[in-house]
Amino acid sequence: VGALRPVQMSPDQSMAATQKESGDQNFDYMFKLLIIGNSSVGKTSFLFRYADDSFTSAFVSTVGIDFKVKTVYKNDKRIKLQVWDTAGQERYRTITTAYYRGAMGFILMYDITNEESFGAVQDWSTQIKTYSWDNAQVILAGNKCDMEEERIVSAESGRLLAEQLGFEFFETSAKDNVNVKQTFERLVDIICDKMSETLETDPAVTTGTQGNARLTDNPPPLQQPNCTC
Amino acid sequence: GGRSVSERCRINLSRSVASDPHDCVGVAAARTREYLAFADPENKFQPSPSALREIFLMTYLQRSSQLHLADTLTCTAMTPEQRVLLGADWVWAVLDLPSRNPKIQIAVQVLHVLQEPEANTTRSDAHVEILHMASTATVERTRAERLVGFCSAVGWSCFALFLFFGFGSDPGNICGLTSSSTLVGFAFCPESYVIQHLSLTAKPFVMGSKPLFKMTISFKFDLVEVRCRLRK
């Protein structure tokens, strides 16, 4: 996993919001993360809550793909998160799966009030295996846990399925801001753990042959042989 | 106040259209006001191309809401990141009810014809970084190619529409051109006001080395009628 070579930004009013975050040149690592799952489970709301701390109940179906950038700090390391918000509708599948490549982590989301979205988790898991790489880390998130009265999928069912698939698990609510930050933080933690593990066995990973390889024209050398983030 | 939508539109229709044929932004702004009932009491508003695009979109959304079109014909504005990645400024979609999945989509990219040519294609470093985040292949494609690529990836039911504000010889024209060779026609007629319509007449156009097809597209916001006719 390599860090991005900093890119010099120029003023552009229309891109002000993007520039503010993605123009940040000072980071030690960049992680590419994807949020996937059925349509209307709350992927976009989840990202809005995390990146902007905002929520609206109005539903706007995501067209194709979108992303936000957020920088987090871990053990004095700045980690830039490139979070891709994918459309859940089948018609965009060709577009969204093209972005799986190089992703280091996935938040696979279902809606606890929607059985179908829970039933589709296995298929989404298969998509990750098909289009991503083996070291990608996944967290299963049962969203909309604020809607207890309409719950159809029990927390226990979610936990069991996550266990079977080898994923970690959270129940979340973008609306009430429950476990949103925690989900991202945990995903970053397990990616870092995996990096440390992999670095010990396969130093080639640090040279950018996986993950964001295409983004690293001249990856700066890692400051430490182990990822201590 | 108490005026009906149609009365207000008639009033706006009587406003004069900018007369300088080379002032494409002013002309297109006037045209937009004319068609979409944008109110400019002092008639002095001269928006930049990007502001004009936003006005067109916001006015359309407002009109769409007034006419209760949103249940059948949605309009989704792209985020700045999506505008770069997908090449679309907004996407119109005819929904399949009750699933609300898009049945037909028209992904729109606005171009300002008489502007400096590079103004439509200039990339800021922020844009380039977004494209780099997507993939190297994406960086190498023009915004027009990205729009066509997006539509192709979605499938036959997604059309790329290049919307030209202030087309050359006809200063009052707003032209539309689609990349798709598929003939499609659809129409919806809910009970609504009879107000006005916007005609988009396509002209021959070549994007890079690929010739695009001529289409006549007309939007009747009153009847929610969208017709696309292929003319070879």
Describe what you observe in this structure.
- Chain A: Belongs to the small GTPase superfamily. Rab family.
- Chain A: It is found in: Cell membrane.
- Chain A: One of its GO terms (molecular function) is GTP binding.
- The complex is a heterodimer of chains A (229) and B (232).
- Chain A is an alpha/beta fold and 229 residues long.
- Chain A has a single domain, classed as Rossmann fold (3-Layer(aba) Sandwich), CATH 3.40.50.
- Helix content of chain A is 31%, strand content 21%.
- Chain A contains 7 helices and 6 strands; from the N terminus they run αβαββαβααβαβα.
- Chain A has helices at residues 16-22, 43-52, 93-97, 115-119, 121-131, 155-165, 180-201; strands at residues 29-37, 65-74, 77-86, 105-111, 137-143, 168-171.
- Chain A starts with 15 loop residues before the first helix and ends in a 28-residue tail after the last helix.
- With 232 residues, chain B is an alpha+beta fold.
- Helices cover 31% and strands 27% of the residues of chain B.
- Chain B has a 5-stranded mixed beta sheet with strand order 1-2-3-4-5. A 4-stranded antiparallel beta sheet of chain B has the order 6-11-10-7, with no helix packed on it. Chain B has a two-stranded antiparallel sheet with strand order 8-9.
- In chain B, strand 10 (214-220) and strand 11 (225-231) form a beta hairpin.
- The interface between A and B is medium-sized, with 32 and 32 residues.
Search tags:
heterodimer; A: 229 residues; Rossmann fold; globular; disordered N terminus; B: 232 residues; alpha+beta; 5-stranded mixed sheet; 4-stranded antiparallel sheet; 11 strands; flat; disordered C terminus
